[in-house]
Specification:
Layout lengths: L3 E5 L4 H12 L3 E6 L6 H7 L3 E4 L12 E4 L8 H9 L3 E3 H8 L5 E6 L4 H14 L5 E3 L11 E2 L5 E5 L4 E3 L2 E4 L8 E4 L13 H13 L6 E5 L3 H7 L7 E4 L5 E5 L6 E6 L2 E7 L5 H16 L4 H9 L9 E4 L5 E5 L4 H15 L4 E5 L4 H4 L4 H4 L8 E5 L8 H7 L4 E4 L2 H11 L5 E5 L7 H10 L3
Parallel strand pairs: 1-2, 1-4, 2-3, 4-5, 6-9, 6-12, 7-9, 12-13, 13-14, 19-23, 20-21, 20-23, 21-22
Antiparallel strand pairs: 7-8, 10-11, 15-16, 16-17, 18-19
Helix pairs in contact: 5-8, 5-9, 6-7, 8-9, 14-15
């Protein structure tokens, strides 16, 4: 009989990926979550994984051989307490992945504050296009694939390498468990204020990761980015290739919105990318993915071909619909830099048409007000800004709105916000809704409301 694994927090993207890979390896897999909900619940049920709603100790009555504990679980959770009291073997998701998959693979780890999901999806698709059939675990929905995670064929495994902590019993960053042979560091800024006190805390974790890359591996990073340079200067034992560098990877834009560009390496043109994405930050992501794929043996020309058919992950500048010729986008932006990047990319794409930004500050860092002093300037490219304000915020959204140079307003009620946005919108506008959560179904409500405009 196959070993039985039960996963706590199974409907999270990462833990759901663990469940899919464990099932593929032949384990019997079940899981619990506070809310068993689509799309992950649907994906897992289709794989034959038994899902249980809530964290009730009786879910463990058919005692598993191992419990994998998600990092959202904490002491006091009834199932966590039951596992500890009954001495049921337990581990974290990252540790299980290392022990059962990654220690036997060429790991390509994609890290950084922004762009991990998109770059991981690009890299996995390039390797797939090159017929290398990689394994992967991505913290989003890669639309070139049917699933967010799979075992794939040896040796290559692409993983989104998150700096968030591992579990209630292991406060190291998840990515220190991944032992990469190819490491991508997209960028580095202060984030996750709920677990890090300063940028130096984050740099310390990144340097732990850098220490694990073997001498015959490769690190890819942007040139002259202060926090990354400082981190690499703490000690470097691995060959490093830089983007935005005359001696490394560069891009020459063919189209102003970034939908076509030349790929340059070491001063020589390697090929051109013509694709459906836009924005300088996506070009940066692409250069990193192309460089990593080259390390795995994929010619740059093949990577350029692959990116022509790359479909961006869901919730990354995703066009949801065009009711009454009003373009509505869903974007995951939850940090001032990501907000600015998204709006700048859209502005380069739409020209002088009106760009409307709608933000739900939902990440722990945003809700704590860590970025309140830099938030206003992130909206420079927007013509009109709407921000949802939660009563739990310890900072004034109204004050931020006053600092924004374009018309801006704060709204504490979702329905009021919906009316304000729909009353302002008119044919030809582009509205980008930014949140790293569900936003109380605002996107769907907005589409329906705009469809009814006359």
């Amino acid at each position: 009989m196959s070993k039985h694994i039960h996963i706590l927090g199974v409907c999270g993207t990462f833990m759901g990926g663990i469940a899919a890979i464990a099932k593929e390896l032949g384990f019997r897999v079940s899981g619990s979550d506070a809310n068993v909900y689509p799309p992950m619940s649907t994906q897992l049920q289709e794989l034959g994984i038994e899902l249980k709603s809530g964290y009730l100790p009786e879910h463990l009555s058919d005692e598993p051989d191992l419990v994998i504990v998600g990092n959202a679980m904490s002491r006091g959770n009834p199932m966590v307490e039951y596992v500890l009291e009954r001495n049921i073997p337990y581990t974290s998701g990252p540790q299980w992945l290392l022990d059962n998959v990654l220690n036997q693979r060429w790991v390509l780890a994609v890290s950084g504050t922004h762009g991990k999901t998109t770059t991981s999806s690009m890299l996995a698709w390039i390797l797939e296009y090159a017929k290398l059939t990689p394994g992967f675990l991505i913290g989003g929905v890669p639309q070139n694939f049917q699933t967010s995670a799979r075992l794939g064929n040896a040796p290559f495994f692409v993983i989104e390498a998150d700096e968030y902590d591992t579990a209630f019993f292991d406060k190291r960053s998840k990515f220190v468990h991944y032992r990469p042979h190819t490491l991508l560091i997209n960028n580095l800024e202060f984030d996750h204020a709920d677990i890090f006190d300063s940028i130096k805390d984050i740099q310390r974790q990144f340097h732990h990761l850098i220490r694990m890359v073997p001498g015959n591996g490769l690190i890819l990073a942007p040139d002259n980015e202060t926090y990354i340079t400082e981190t690499l200067n703490q000690g470097l034992w691995t060959r490093t290739e830089f983007s935005r560098s005359p001696q490394g990877w560069q891009a020459n834009k063919i189209n102003v919105d970034g939908s076509a560009f030349e790929v340059i390496f070491d001063g020589e043109k390697q090929g051109e990318v013509h694709w459906s994405l836009m924005g300088d930050f996506n070009i940066d992501n692409a250069l990193m993915a192309i460089g990593a794929a080259r390390h795995a043996g994929v010619p740059v020309a093949v990577s350029c071909e692959a990116l022509a058919s790359f479909v961006n992950t869901k919730r990354r500048q995703e066009l949801l619909g065009t009711p009454n010729d009003i373009h509505v986008y869903d974007d995951f932006a939850h940090h001032p830099t990501a907000i600015s990047n998204t709006l700048t990319a859209l502005r380069s794409h739409i020209g002088n048409k009106r760009l409307i930004a709608v933000l739900e500050p939902r990440s722990n860092t945003m809700k704590a007000g860590i970025h309140k002093d830099t938030l206003a300037q992130a909206f420079t490219e927007a013509d009109r800004v709407f921000i949802f304000k939660d009563s739990s915020f310890a900072w004034s959204v109204d004050d931020v709105c006053e600092q924004i140079t374009k018309p801006a307003s704060a709204h504490s009620d979702i329905d009021e916000l919906l009316r304000a946005v729909s009353d302002y919108a008119e044919s030809g506008d582009h509205i980008v809704v930014m949140s790293n959560g569900g936003f109380s179904g605002f996107h769907t409500k907005l589409l329906k409301t705009l469809e009814q405009l006359t």
